[in-house]
Amino acid sequence: MNHLVRTTLVLCLLSMSLGGVSAQEVASANIRSLDGQVQEIKSDVLGIASELSNLEERLLYPSNTQVSVFVSVPQGDEFRLDAVQIEINGELATHHIYSFKELEALQKGGVQRVYTGNVMTGEHQLSVTVIGKLKNGDDFSNADSFAFSKGVKPKALGLTLSGNDIQVGAL
Amino acid sequence: MQRAAFLTIGFLLSICLLAGPARSDELKDLYFGEALYYAHQSDFFSALERLDSEVKQHGELDEPELGALFHHINDAEFSLGDFELRYRMHHRAGRAIRAVLEGAVEETVRNDAAYRLARIHFQKNQMDDALRALDRIDGDVPKSIRDDIEFLRGNIYLAEGMPEGSLEVFEKLQGSDEYGGFAAYNLGIAYLQGGQRSLALEQLNHAGQIESNDPGELAIRDKSNLVLGTIHLEDGEHRQALPYLNRVRLDGPFSNQALLSAGWASMAIDDFDRAVVPWSILADREVTDRSAQEAMLALPYAYGKLEIHGRAAVHYGRALDSFGAEVNKLNESIDSIRDGKFLEALVREEIRKDKDWVIHLRSLPNSPETYYLMELLASHDFQTGLQNYLDLADLHRKLLTWEASFDSFDEMVAIRSDHYEPLLPDVDTQFRELDSKLRLRTEQYKMLVKRRDDLLTTPRPEFLATPEEQAILERVEHLETQMAAGGTAFSENFAARVKRLKGLLSFTLETEYHARLTEFDKNLGTLDEAMLVAQKQYDQYVRSRQAATHSFVGYDTPISRLRAKARDSVSKVESLMARQGRQLEVLAIAELTARRSHLENYGDKARFALADSYDRATQAQASVGGE
Predict the structure, then answer these.
(1) What letter would DSSP give residue B363?
(2) Which chain A residues are Cβ-neighbours of B395 within 8 angstroms?
(3) pLDDT of residue B370
(4) Same domain, A70 and A101
(5) Tally of structural domains, chain B
(6) Is B236 helix (H, G, I), strand (E, B) or coil?
(7) In DSSP terms, which residues pair with A80 in a beta bridge?
(8) pLDDT value at position A76?
(9) Which CATH number is A99's domain given?
(10) A17 belongs to a structural domain
(11) Which of A92, A121, B38, B112 lies in disulfide reach of B43, CB 3.0 to 4.6 Å?
C-alpha cells in the first residue's frame, strides 16, 4: 500500500506538467467511451468462467467422489510456511511450494484450495507434511495423519497449519 | 495552474488509502476464504469468479441460515463490490452495494454500504453522487470506518472547491492515527483553497515536519515542503522558499522537483554558487526526467553567471549531446510504437510480475517505446486505457486456454461414452432383476413388520405356529368340518381324539405364545439389519449407475454453448483490444512528440548558449593573455 502511495504521488506530481493536445483529447475521450464496453466484456467472461468451473467440477469431480483440501494459517502466527505435501491413503495427492505473495495472502486470512480430487465413499487417511521456518529462524518440519470419512456429498477438509501443529476440520 | 494541480494531488491521494478487501475475524466459509486468498494476491478475476458463485449458491438455499456463508454474507456482498471495483467494474460494483443499501439490513451495515458507494462515486469523479451517498449515513457507524468516511468527505469538498467543509473535516482528523499526516497536508491545501494564505503556510509547515517512518507519510511530508517552497517561489519570496525545498529528502519521489526549484530560488537571489549544488546533483539523474533535462541547461547557465564560461561550455556541450541522443531515442520510440511494439512491451510477462513495473518501464531492455511514458502513465485516462488493455490481454489469454479445454472435455466425454454405453444394457438387465427381487423382499418384510405390530395389540397364537403345527391344525380343522357335515361316520372316540389333539395344540400355542413372539421380534430385528444393508447396496448401485450416466450424458449442450460464448467473447476482446491499443498508441505518440519538440527546443537553446559560452570563454582567455 505504501508503495502504491509513493507511486501515485510520483505519478500525480508528474501529471502536473501534462498539457492538452487535440489528438490526446480525442484519444482520451475514446478511452473513456471504451471503458463501458470493457466492463461489459469482463462481466461476460466472468459468467463464462463461472459456468466453466461448474461444468469442470461436474465432469471431473462429481459430488459423490469429490474431496477438496483447503489450507489456512492462523492470523498472527509469524512462522514462514515454505511447502506443504498432502497424501491420501498413502498416495501423493499434491505438493505446493509457497511464493511470498501466496504466503502473505494466507497470513491476511485467505484460504487456499490446495487440492481437489476424487475418492470413493468410505473411510480414508489424510497425511500432511509441512516445511517452514519459525520466527527465530529455525527450520521445522511437521507431519501428521488424520482419518476422514467420505459420504455422498462433496467433502471439504480445512487444514490449519501453524508453527506448532496441524489441525484439520471438515465441512 | 500549479496550485490547482497541487489541490488535485490532495484528493487523489485518498484513492490508494481507501480500498481493501473485507476481512472476517473467524472464517466459517472456506470458499469465501478462497476468494479472499485470490483477492489478497490482487487476482480479482479469480476472487470474483469464486465469490460470485458462492453468493449465488447461498441465495438459492431454502434455509440460508444453515449455510456456512450466512455468517459472512454482509462481508461477502461488500467484498463482491470491492473486488468489482478493484477489477475496474464500477457499474457492477455500484449495483452490488446499492442492493445492500436497499435491503433490510442493520444500521451499521447500511452505513458501511453507503460509505463504499460514496467511494465508488468518488473514484468515478462523480462528486455530487458521492456526497449524496455520504448523506445517507446516519446513526451507528462502524468504528473502523469513521475516519475513512470523514477523510473521504474532506477530499470530496476539496475536489468540489468547498474549503469551508473540508477545513472543518480535516481539522477534526488531525489526531487520526490512520490519516494524521495526510489530513495535515490536506488541511493546508484547504486553507490555500479558501484563500487563507498564512494559515495554509502554517499548516503546511506543520505537515512538513511530521516525524514518521512510514514511506507514505514521509512522501506527504516532502510534498508539503515542496508545495510550501513553490508557494513562496510563485509569490517572489525566493529566500523563504529555500529552507522548505531543502527539507525535501534527496531520495524521495519529489526530490527532482525540489532540487530544480531550489536551484531557481538561489538564482533569483543571485546566489549562483548555491544554485550549482542542487542542479549538479539533478543533472546527473535519470535523463528522461523533465526536471533533470531542465537542470542540464540550468547548470551551465549558473556557471555562466559565475563567469566560469569554460565549464559552462562543457556542460552545454554535454547537454546538447544528451538532448540529441534523447531526440534520437524518442524518434526510435515513436517508430517502435507505430510498429506495434509498445503494446507488445506492455503485455510482457516479466514486466507484469514486478510490482514496480510502471517505474521500470523506462529501463525495459530493447523497448525504447516505453522510456518516456512515465508522465503519460500519470494521466487518469491513459491509466484507465492501459489497465483496460492489460485486463483485455488477460481475458484473451484465459479465453484461448478455455477454448483448448473444450476439446479436452469433448474427448473425455467421448471416451466415457465409448466405455459405458456397451456395458450399460447388460448392467440394466441385471439391475431390473435385482430391483424386482428387492421390491418383493421389501414387501414381504413390510408384511412381517405389520404382523408383528398387529400381534402386539391383538394376540393371535395360531399366527406363530410352526409349519408342522400349522399342518396339523389344518388337518384337525378339515376333520372337524367333515364331522360337522356328517357325510362320513366318525366314532365318538375319534371325535374325542381330534378334540384332544386340538386342545393340545391350542395349549402349546397359548403357553408358548410370548416366547415365540419374542423370538419372532428378535428374528425380525436381524432382518431389519439385513434389509438396511441390502437397501444401502441398492442405493449405492443406483448412485453408481447414475454417476456412470452423468459422466457422459448432458454435456454436449453446455459445452457447445460455452464454446460459442467463448468464441464470441474472443472476437469481442480482440476487437476491443485493437481499439483500446490504438488509442493508447495515439496518446503515447502525442506525448513523445511533445517531449521531442520540447527537447529540440532545449537543444536549440543549448546550441546558442554553447556558442555564446565559447565566445565568452575565448574573450576571457584573450583578456587574461593580454594582461
Answers:
(1) G
(2) 41-42, 45
(3) 65
(4) yes
(5) 1
(6) coil
(7) A133
(8) 78
(9) 2.60.40
(10) no
(11) B38
Say which range, B39-48, B393-402, B482-491, has the weakest mean pLDDT: B482-491
Q: Which of B36, B381, B562 sits opposite A51 (nearest CB)?
A: B562
pLDDT value at position A64?
Answer: 85
Do both A100 and A162 map to the same domain? yes
Cβ A13–B16 below 8 Å, yes or no? Answer: no
| pLDDT higher than 70, residue B202 | yes
How many angstroms away from the CA of B325 is the closest CA of chain A? 22
For residue A17, pLDDT over 50 is answered with: no
**Chain A interface includes B19 (CB < 8 A):** no
Compare all CA atoms of chain A with the CA of B374 and give the residue at the minimum distance: A11
Measure A150 CA to nearest chain B CA, in Å: 13
Q: If contacts are CB pairs under 8 Å, which of residues 89-128 in chain A contact chain B?
A: 101-102, 104-106, 108-113, 121
Residues of B in contact with A76 (CB under 8 A): none
pLDDT of residue B21 exceeding 70, the answer is no
pLDDT score of B8 more than 60: no
B118 is in which domain, residue-wise? 1-207
Calculate the average pLDDT of chain B. 85
Give the count of domains, chain A: 2
| CB contact (8 A) between residue B27 and residue A156 | no
Query: DSSP per residue over chain A, as a string?
Result: -HHHHHHHHHHHHHHTT----HHHHHHHHHHHHHHHHHHHHHHHHHHHHHHHHHHHHHHHS-TTTEEEEEEE--TT---EEEEEEEEETTEEEEEEE--HHHHHHHHTT--EEEEEEE--SEEEEEEEEEEEE-TTS-EEEEEEEEEEEE-SS-EEEEEEE-SS-EEEEE-
Contact assessment for residue B562 and residue A52, using Cβ atoms and an 8 Å cutoff:
yes
The per-residue pLDDT for B6 is: 37
Please answer yes or no on whether A31 and B381 come within 8 Å at the CB atom. Answer: yes
Instruction: Identify the domain containing residue A156 by its residue range.
Output: 66-170
pLDDT exceeds cutoff 60 at B2: no
3-class DSSP state of B295: helix
Residue B337 lies in a domain: no
Would the pLDDT of B613 be above 60?
Answer: yes
Quick check: A15 pLDDT over 50? no
Q: Which of B61-75, B77-91, B188-202, B497-511 has the weakest average pLDDT?
A: B61-75
- Of A43, A27, A9, A4, give the one whose Cα is nearest residue B88: A43
